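dude i think i finally got it to work??
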Amino acid sequence: MSTPETPHTSPATSPQTPSHPSAATPGEWERLILAELDRRAPELLELAGDLIRIPSENPAGDCSAIAAFTAGWLNEHGIEAQLHTVDDVPNAGPGRVNVVARLSPEHLLAEAPRHLALAGHYDVVPIGDAERWDFPPLAGDVVDGYLRGRGASDMKAGLAGQMLTMVVLRDLGVPLAGPITFAAVCDEETGGVTGSPWVLDHGLLDSVTGAVIAEPAERGFPTIGQKGLNKLRITIDGTPGHGSLQPLHGTSANLLAARAALALQKLWELEAEPPESVRPLIADSIDYAEARTGDEPGAYRPGISRVFSHVTVNIGTLHGGTGVNVVADRAVLEVDTRIPIGLRRADVNARVVELLAGAGVHVTDERAAAVAGGHTPNARLEIAAQASEANWTDPADPIVVDLVGALREVVGPEAKGVLQWASSDARFFRAHGIPVLQYGPAELPCVHGFNERCKVTDVVDTAKVFALTAVRYLGLA
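look at this
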């Protein structure tokens, strides 16, 4: 591994650490922790590099090797970690393994008032064409101030920061007033159920009162809410015939699918009415998004912030027909819609049925109940099981206040929580009643792309934010 550049040292680390840590004030503890993270920055980067070098692409999703490494590293450093192999989900696939570890100081009462979870996923998107990378995709090295390789931003560097944070708090003997549970999971990148949903459903985080997921975020801007996820599959039946007789004979499922795709664009016109309490968060998110527009290649264009108030519609796949000279007897349309705060999935899907009917596509829903308005159904509408409503964490929740406060000290005073237009495992935490936000080191333009990398300074600073958040959220005994 290349020698990293000297990482950024926040001003908070400059005063001398207390000579008697057991009698230290909260401020002295924080300075001690930050100084220790600076001292162990090379160890942090080495750990992140080790994680990157372990293949964990999803698909196929086999995370057995990286799970074993993660649990082994924690156990070697005094944090008890357990492997949880998913064997109760049909067709889960091989290597669906999660790691759960606990830092619970001996002095704690049986039931502490607060319990923090540090969480993330170690599966990554596929590398793609390795020839199009400028360096080995699993390099895990540091060059010119950047940690490089698949997962550097999404999100193995963030996981490494959480892991070292746990170890540093333990090694220093910080008298936390509550426990920390670390959860590293598989199966996030394909939206599967064997990662965070499985961990939550099996009660492994039941007593958690606040959580931080190390998802990639822009420096200083954690995400505290997201749009609803609503993926549709529409199977349309036509009447086959000889292609030479179209449109006089037969009904083309492909033509119906094309009309359906165009009709569904009108979902954009639905108006969201968000609650008053969340409108300041939406306003901050609009300002955040518009401040990042520009004319350079790859930049967002002005107006991108409308994503927070509209239903987006992506016709992801469209397959149909059996041959060019045959009127298509069936077409399948897969559609990704994201729903803003202030609209419900039920209302959006009711509008989907109306728009499809206007295009000549009369559907039955996934329970086979006719909703075709008196027409003979010629299509079936299925809604993905992992759908979710728009969800967010109250900006005034202590976990948000404490992490944003830490960010303002480590990164800069402009830090604030914003919304994301994508979705993530945070929705599962909120569904289980756990306030959660997302923050991790990242070079956002390269997430899921070639040449993924992350600034060394961001990796180290994010670990500091995790540590400060843990101390402030849990308090000291």
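Confidence is low (pLDDT under 50) at residues 1-17, 367-372.
im so relieved honestly
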